[in-house]
Amino acid sequence: MSDTSTETALATGQHPDRFLNRELSWLDFNARVLELAEDAEAPLLERVKFLSIFASNLDEFFMVRIAGLKRRQNTGLTVRSPDGLTIREQLTRIAARTQELVARHAGVFVDDVLPRLAENGIRIVHWGEVGDGESMRLREYFRDQVFPVLTPLAVDPAHPFPYISGLSLNLAVSVRDPESGSPRFARVKVPDNVPRFVPVHTEDDDSVFLPLEDLISAHIGQLFPGLDVIDQHLFRVTRNADVEVEEDRDEDLLQALERELQRRRFGPAVRLEVTDSMDPQILDVLMHELEVSPVDVLHVPGLLDLASLMALYGLDRPELKDEPFVPGTHPRLTDGEAPKSFFATLREGDVLVHHPYDSFATSVQRFIEQAAADPHVLAIKQTLYRTSGDSPIVQALIEAAEAGKQVVVLVEIKARFDEEANISWAKTLERAGCHVVYGLVGLKTHCKTALVVRRENGVLRRYCHIGTGNYNPKTARIYEDLGILTADPRVGADLTDLFNTLTGYSRQTTYRSLLVAPHGIRAGLLEKIRREARHAAEGRPSGIRIKVNSLVDEQLIDALYEASAAGVPVELWIRGICALRPQVPGLSENIKVRSIVGRFLEHSRVCNFLNDGSPEWWLGSADLMHRNLDRRVEVLLRISDQHAQDQLQRMFDGAMADDVRSFQLGADGAWTQTGQHDFQARVMAGELAG
């Protein structure tokens, strides 16, 4: 390495502005989702879907990330983010960026999507647009289905301000006593167990809908007989929904979490959404009672809670949606119409499955089902982070236990927003005779692993699955993920050791074919990145390719900067948050960052190191974030099968092609859309198959 290159590499740690802000980078990701909703060439209901996804993403962002910032702010400590911002500065910038995106989001819906829906016979109307015949039917619907569940709550000296549940729609109503002339304030919750969009059922069209809040507003007087309704305004509150469990080795984790979930309902307010016509005096009342500041208020043009638009996506209008995609069975796993034995297939070599292009049901799910039914299988061990409510995998594990097999299931009951479902599944599995454990104190178990032990001719053989996605058949149809099915004895030995660590008292930290967090992944990746830098400095072949959802870890980012300074070409495929700043002279001119946001959620994690012409490929569950590397059990598996390596190479080459439609990150932190061709469509069409 030249003296100049050495100085540059050493200086990267002191380079100003070398990190982008994590939270603002996440908002940039959601802006990319919004661009899909803005795409006039996309099928109309697909645009509606992305409007809904943008809104639900933003809800979770406030419930978790903003809630976390506010909690840290309340400690009174002066804390700066890696890019140098105080929490107050971050919240101010986030508020401004969010208000901008929300206005843009509402504008796309009101000015573009809504008129196009009307052109296609799907209309959202207000009460004043409803005809006499339809209004009569709607009055009956209100009387029978809505009115009985409404509860007006007065606010006065005898009635304290009511609790406002998180993400609920509410009407703030001003009323006056005609005798005394005294104004009164009341809150009416829009029920969430009644459809948000009420079918109007006109004579010639059944795709006309009235927002539920409009129906309630039109009949609000019935809730306040004898009083005059002066005004009413819609609002919505977002509360801190992050669960913090104080884990104690002497306390039952299940009971501690159940107690904390009860508390979550009453978390402090972190956002107040109001219509842009909100009366300033009513807004002052809400801000005072909810204890929020002006920076926490979002003024929304048009409808609140566009996450509910997903109900419209459910309409039976296939001509307004993407062409249906039916995943195929991996060719190694089928013999004509008949499924093949996984055990015989995997003895011949590994199988890399790529969901949703390869069917989850006929690969990973069938692998577990075959193992559960096979009389020669003695044990099944599996991690479950998130799964669906009617999971066939859980059912297969139950059947395996009932058949006398040893079944060990590590259920991560701290999986955010799935805590209650996972607690329920854990109890169901225990009742069926499965050995259920909850992992290690202080860590979430996020790895996706399954181990099957089978007796064959008096010898025990182990079959494994390690993947990037959850064992969830529903999300496997819309999330892009990778998984390896293998009978490699080294992988089987590693998973045996890993499960012993998760279920017992083993302190093992090194493995044969795995990198395992919290001890091994950051250190392992740093060593491999620095190895590439050494190779580049010595004039040997070098290169780094990484695909993850998020890149935040400062140590890894600085190592990538040093590799770039040494001349290593670095290609990063980041779906969401990226705190690395690429293409900066003297810092990262050899680093390119690309994001692909499309029909399927890019969710797999893959790392590739050229390694002087002997490439290494790794896949697994870990994003490059502090929580994944320090506070979770994560797994990266080294891919040894040549066919699987070639498949990953084709995937990366295809995604990084110049003509692929993607977003490129610039040195200024801005994302720019380039290219025209849909990468995911190419994969669906089999263009990248080998």
Q: Ends: how far apart?
A: 39 Å
Radius of gyration: 27 Å
Q: Assembly type of the shown chains?
A: single chain
CATH architecture of the largest domain: 2-Layer Sandwich
How many structural units, i.e. domains? 3
Strand content: 15-25%
| CATH homologous superfamily heading of the largest domain | Polyphosphate kinase middle domain
Shape: globular
How many individual helices? 19
Helix content: 25-40%
State the name of the first-level CATH class of the largest domain: Alpha Beta
- Structural class by SSE content: alpha/beta
Which regions have little confidence, pLDDT < 50, spanning 5+ residues? 1-11, 247-251
Report the biggest beta sheet as strand number plus sense, adding barrel if it closes: 10 strands, mixed
**Overall pLDDT level:** 90
* CATH-defined fold name of the largest domain: polyphosphate kinase like
Counting DSSP E segments of at least 2 residues, the number of strands comes to 29
Write a structural description.
It is an enzyme of class 2 (transferase). The chain is α/β, with parallel strands linked by helices and 690 residues long. The chain folds into three domains: 3-20 and 515-684, 2-Layer Sandwich (Endonuclease, Chain A); 44-320, Polyphosphate kinase middle domain (polyphosphate kinase like, 2-Layer Sandwich), CATH 3.30.1840.10; 331-508, Endonuclease, Chain A. Helix content is 36%, strand content 22%. It has 19 helices and 29 strands. Strands 16, 20, 21, 22, 23, 25, 26, 27, 28 and 29 form a ten-stranded mixed β-sheet that branches. Strands 12, 13, 14, 15, 17, 18, 19 and 24 form an eight-stranded mixed β-sheet that branches. Strands 2-4-3-7-8-9 form a six-stranded mixed β-sheet. Helix 2 runs antiparallel to helix 3 (44-73), helix 3 (44-73) packs antiparallel against helix 4 and helix 15 runs parallel beside helix 16 (554-565). The longest helix is centred in the N-terminal third of the chain and has 33 residues, at 87-119. It is globular and about 90 Å long. The model is unreliable at 1-11 and 247-251 (pLDDT under 50).
